[in-house]
TrEMBL record:
Hexamer formed by 3 homodimers. One of its GO terms (molecular function) is nicotinate-nucleotide diphosphorylase (carboxylating) activity. It catalyses: nicotinate beta-D-ribonucleotide + CO2 + diphosphate = quinolinate + 5-phospho-alpha-D-ribose 1-diphosphate + 2 H(+). One of its GO terms (cellular component) is cytoplasm. This is Nicotinate-nucleotide pyrophosphorylase [carboxylating]. The keyword Repressor does not apply. InterPro entries: Aldolase_TIM, ModD, NadC/ModD, Nicotinate_pribotase-like_C, Quinolinate_PRibosylTase_N_sf, Quinolinate_PRibosylTrfase_C, Quinolinate_PRibosylTrfase_N. It comes from Methanococcus maripaludis OS7. Pathway: Cofactor biosynthesis; NAD(+) biosynthesis; nicotinate D-ribonucleotide from quinolinate: step 1/1. The keyword Glycosyltransferase applies. The gene is modD.
Length: 283
């Protein structure tokens, strides 16, 4: 995967746990021994951030023996990461690596299950995630959802053009909006321009106005299906996006509607992966 998380962010993860001393290992004089560190899946999962786990281990003086890459699917009981080194350094790495792996393997697995279910009903559907990730976690979060088969909806405000009601508060009616849309298309020729709506009638009005895509927010699946058919009759190439309140419990309903894109924040939140740590004394 073409992805980069800078060392200083990994060092923050280490610092949160150590800062600056492992008192137990120091008093037990574990620097007299060598040890092996391994992580084993307690259930089937999609891996994420094993590359960053390798880098944390190296920062802490360990030699990484082997690991499976981000995006790999591993079975229950499978060892997917191994490192070795001085026992006190193994203990320094132990929880920092485990926290990273459990959180983001959990997110990657949740994403994989969501995308797989959506594509069971619509093999061409795109699943994308919102900007509502936990503050300060964007890079590993995006890595996790990509590992699971989804993509970010918008990495930031400069990436796409999407009009919300909060923007329309500064537009004086539909006639001015038509002018604004014309100006936006002239000044952003390579960009699609979308608008979010929360009902069928407003959405159809904006289809006729010439928007490139319509984002339906918190609209029930039956209305979404009706909207897709009506919008495509007017503009066959328009893209329809469904967003708001879409979870693993109702994704099947929305995938069946014919929308091209599902936007969700649900993949960010849920159970961590369950990963067993194995630490063994070696010669």
């Amino acid at each position: 995967m073409s992805f980069y998380i800078p060392d200083y962010e990994l060092e923050k993860i280490i610092e949160e746990d150590i800062n600056p001393l492992d008192l137990t290992s120091q008093i037990m004089k574990l620097d007299r021994f060598n040890a092996k560190l391994a992580y084993k899946a307690r259930h089937d999962m999609v891996l994420c951030c094993t590359e960053e786990a390798e880098r944390i281990c190296k920062i802490l003086g360990l030699e990484v023996i082997s690991y499976k890459r981000t995006g790999s699917y591993v079975k229950e009981g499978e060892v997917f990461f191994e490192a070795k080194g001085r026992a006190d350094n193994v203990h320094l790495a132990w929880k920092s690596v485990l926290r990273l792996l459990e959180g983001y393997c959990g997110m990657a697995t949740r994403t994989y299950e969501f995308v797989t279910l959506a594509r069971k009903y619509n093999e061409n559907i795109n699943v994308v995630t919102t900007r509502k990730n936990l503050a300060g976690t964007k890079k590993p979060t995006i890595k996790a959802i990509v590992a699971g088969g989804a993509y970010p909806h918008r990495l930031g405000l400069s990436e796409t053009i999407l009009i919300f009601d909060e923007h329309l508060a500064f537009v004086d009616g539909d006639e001015e909006l038509k002018y604004v849309l014309k100006e936006m298309k002239a000044n952003a020729l390579e960009k699609k321009i979308g608008i979010e709506v929360d009902n069928f009638e407003t959405g159809i009005k904006y289809v006729k106005m010439g928007f490139d895509y319509i984002q339906l927010d918190k609209v029930d699946s039956k209305t979404v299906e009706k909207f897709v058919k009506a919008a495509k009759e007017i503009t066959p190439n328009i893209t329809i996006v469904a967003a708001g309140g879409i979870t693993i419990q109702n994704i099947a309903e929305y995938a069946k509607t014919g929308v091209e894109v599902i936007v969700t924040s649900a993949l960010y939140f849920g159970k961590a992966a369950d990963i067993k740590t194995i630490i063994e004394k070696i010669d």
